[in-house]
């Protein structure tokens, strides 16, 4: 339950008060850390100043010594002496750069310390307010009350994170459901296309089957006609065979053996053809013989 206290021409909610108190504690901790670091940096800077003065003194002595040596060994200068002098000069420059960096860092720490002090001053009235609230609660000091509120905020943050996770899971499930729906729609469309294609193929097959059925009917009708004609031919052959077989003694032939019947009919026709030819030859001879006596007379 939220409580508000009036004062100073305005009101403050429990949440604002809690946030301000936590911010105050954070700023106080930051200010304390800055004070410790500033003290350490200041000690180190003092040490560097001392070392700088010593190095500067050593550098001056080295320069004087180098000048004396250069004067003494002007014609016998070696590379080793020059390298040593250059090395000492580089070390001095590095030290100077480190001192400059530490000075800048020290200035930055001072600036941050001042900002922290301003922030602490800004939130100091919250501390006074916290002390007044402390008297109305069961807590013994401000730290316990602040810790209690921090626990509440921590629980609230956990619940908020849990709510975000649940919301994210819901969004993920929505995306998964939409993806499955899209896949289902795509599959449904593909199945419809395949069904349409199969229906087209079925209609084509039915049309072809109808054509082949008509062709089969035509073949059956033709076959029936041919069978009828064949029966008629067999019957006519049988009748002709019976007519020809009455005059001559021949081998018995089955009524259904049309081929043999035809062979016998063929033999009968050939025999009678020969007989007719012989008869015609005789007639021609007799006519010729009858014509010769007439011519002689």
TrEMBL record:
Keyword check for Coiled coil: yes
Keywords: Coiled coil
Residue ranges that the Swiss-Prot or TrEMBL entry lists as coiled coil: 17-44, 82-119, 156-215
Regions that span the bilayer: none
UniProt xrefs under PANTHER family: COILED-COIL DOMAIN-CONTAINING PROTEIN 42 LIKE-2-LIKE (PTHR21683:SF2), COILED-COIL DOMAIN-CONTAINING PROTEIN 42 LIKE-2-LIKE-RELATED (PTHR21683)
Protein name according to UniProt: Coiled-coil domain-containing protein
Source organism of the structure: Fundulus heteroclitus
